[in-house]
Amino acid sequence: MSPLSKAEYRTTIAPRYQKSSKREKSIILDEFCLVCSYNRKYAIRLLNSEIKKKNPIKQKKRGRKKTYDDPLILDITKNIWSKTNLPCSKRLKQLMPLWIPHYDYEIPPHILKLLSTISPATMDRLMAPIRAKFNKTGLATTKPGSILKKHIPIKTVQWDETKPGFIEADTVAHCGTSTAGSFAYTINCVDIATQWTQQRATWGKGEQGVLNAIKDIESNFPFNLKGFDCDNGSEFLNWHLVRYFTKRKHPVQFTRSRAYHKNDNAHIENKNWTHIRQYLGYQRFENEQLVAMLNNLYTNEWNLYFNFFIPSFKLIRKDRHGSKIKKIHDKPKTPFQRLCESHEISEDVKQQLNTLFNTLNPFELQKQMHLKIKAILKIVNNEK
Fold it and tell me: Which of 38, 138, 298, 372 could disulfide-link 199, Cβ–Cβ 3.0 to 4.6 Å?
């Protein structure tokens, strides 16, 4: 008998088998096994499964009731996640309390309670269908400034990186696909202890222009500069900066990384991506008026947004287990929160920062940033 014939035969006798008495079932089963050459137990399962398909029994879903199945939870989480440039769930969990008080509309109390208790893992599960992947690479424009290398020591472990004031600096080239000609650069600086960042734009990498930008950056840090570390580019390794950092009442430790060891400046290299490239991209900024527009953005909404409302991880230590190294990070915090926890910052400065923080709205900052970036890219793309 063919498989199709067996299936038809089973479909025909299954209802009769179900309605029969125990003795009749035994007779039907004997006949079914004989005709189809089935094992008796297997034949019983086939006849019962046929009945179950025609008469399905709805079973109650196992496990506890879903807690975070309200669509509003996903809507709010997705909205803040997208406006903060797609942070990981652990960082998103820490920034939610900073953003929710400024949300566009009033959130129901029971939703607020759930948003305060939701875990990073649950956020990942909720947003799994909407996550996007992207990967970009840039151009390196660092040219050796070897003339002063012997005057500027390589940074080793002489800094106390738990105290604010020790910064790393780098330049980000807005050169597009070619480094020929003139274009805008962004000088990016980050404090190692607090992750506080400052950015300024310059036209080219002229020594005097870079010096003026660094002076402006230093004046806007909420702490005194103690150390300055950079790569081996000629925009940093020059006599202007050497005199500026060393010929003062309280000299600044001026150090450099090893040549061709990019990870020596890991703190600033990370910020080049998260604070510059993810927002401004890799296009060519060859219009000089863009420098003023970038600095207007950097000195206003940009630094307030990143320093007060965007948390980040900070590496505490590395533990070696055999051939593996496990990195231990602290809880994600904003640079503002790290400054407030520091014993090196005066109470007056902390009070000023708290007063400023209470006047800020992250959604409004993000909106203004978007408008200014749009205006910059409009010029870059030659749009009318």
Answer: 298
User: DSSP 3-state assignment of 69?
Assistant: coil
Assigned domain for 42 exists: yes
Range of the domain at 373: 147-380
3-state secondary structure of 67: coil
Claim to verify: residue 341 and residue 240 sit in the same structural domain: yes
37 torsion bin: left (phi>0), alpha (psi -120 to 50), beta (else): left
- In sequence order, what DSSP letters do the residues of 82-111 get, joined into one string? HHTTS--HHHHHHHHHHHGGG-SSPPPHHH
206, 234 in Cβ contact below 8 A?
no
CA of 161: how far to CAs of 128, 246, 262, in Å? 37, 20, 19
Q: In tens digits, what is the pLDDT along the chain, a chain of 384 residues?
A: 788 888 888 888 888 888 888 889 899 899 989 988 899 999 888 888 755 554 555 666 777 778 888 889 999 998 888 888 888 899 999 999 999 999 888 889 999 999 999 999 999 988 888 876 534 444 445 444 444 555 556 665 566 778 899 999 999 999 988 888 999 999 999 999 999 999 999 999 888 999 999 999 999 999 999 999 888 888 888 888 989 998 888 999 888 887 777 677 788 888 988 899 888 988 899 999 999 999 999 999 999 999 999 999 888 888 888 888 888 888 999 999 999 999 999 999 999 999 999 999 999 999 999 999 999 999 988 876
Integer Cα distance of 184 and 148 in angstroms? 25
* Alpha helices per DSSP H over the chain: 3-19, 22-36, 40-54, 71-83, 89-99, 109-117, 120-127, 207-219, 239-246, 266-271, 278-280, 289-297, 303-309, 335-341, 347-357, 362-380
Residue 122 and residue 246 in one domain: no
Is there a single domain that holds both residue 157 and residue 216? yes
pTM given for the model: 0.74
